[in-house]
Amino acid sequence: MQKIYFVLIDKENAESSEKARKIAYHELVDNGFVYTDAFFTGGRCDRFNIGGGWSGFFTTIMTGKDMSKRKAKSFLGCDDDAQILTKSLLRKLKAWDKNNDIQWMKPVCYFDSDNYLERELSEMTEEHLGRWIVLVGCHL
């Protein structure tokens, strides 16, 4: 199963989608997002990719165009797997989250890489507008 996850990156730290996706990848690795081989370990998943099986999700919810069959070209996903968070995107993400009834996906969370906080998507507010939001597919 591949769960969806998000990472927020300040726009000043990344001038492009590619840079935001690279920063998100390294932030997750550096902060123990993946389980390790030690006896007692934390982590959220055993592996992840930027976009992953969810690659194209932002395009799907914003345009209605089904991107579910697309495969990311690399572990860093595709250009549209990182977007600048707008009011419209935030509204659509929260509506999707509210209407998502797949229990093993709950809660959908995000990592605020600049403030080192993890929160549920339902808690994301307009104060986050203008930042990069990077899509992550994590294998459970």
Can you tell me about this structure?
- With 140 residues, the chain is α+β, with helices and mostly antiparallel strands.
- It has helices spanning 17-30, 57-63, 87-99, and strands spanning 2-9, 47-50, 82-84, 109-112, 117-120, 132-139.
- β4 (109-112) and β5 (117-120) form a beta hairpin.
- The radius of gyration is 14 Å and the shape is globular.
- The mean pLDDT is 91.
Rg on CA atoms, Å: 14 Å
Which structural class best describes the helix and strand composition?
A: alpha+beta
Number of continuous helical runs = 3
Q: Main beta sheet, described?
A: 6 strands, mixed
Question: pLDDT under 50 segments (min length 5)?
Answer: none
Q: What is the molecular shape?
A: globular
Structure characteristics:
globular, 140 residues, six-stranded mixed sheet, single chain, alpha+beta, 3 helices
Give a brief outline of the structure.
With 140 residues, this protein is of the alpha+beta class.
Walk me through the topology.
Blueprint: E1 2-9, H1 17-30, E2 47-50, H2 57-63, E3 82-84, H3 87-99, E4 109-112, E5 117-120, E6 132-139
Parallel strand pairs: 1-4
Antiparallel strand pairs: 1-6, 2-6, 3-6, 4-5
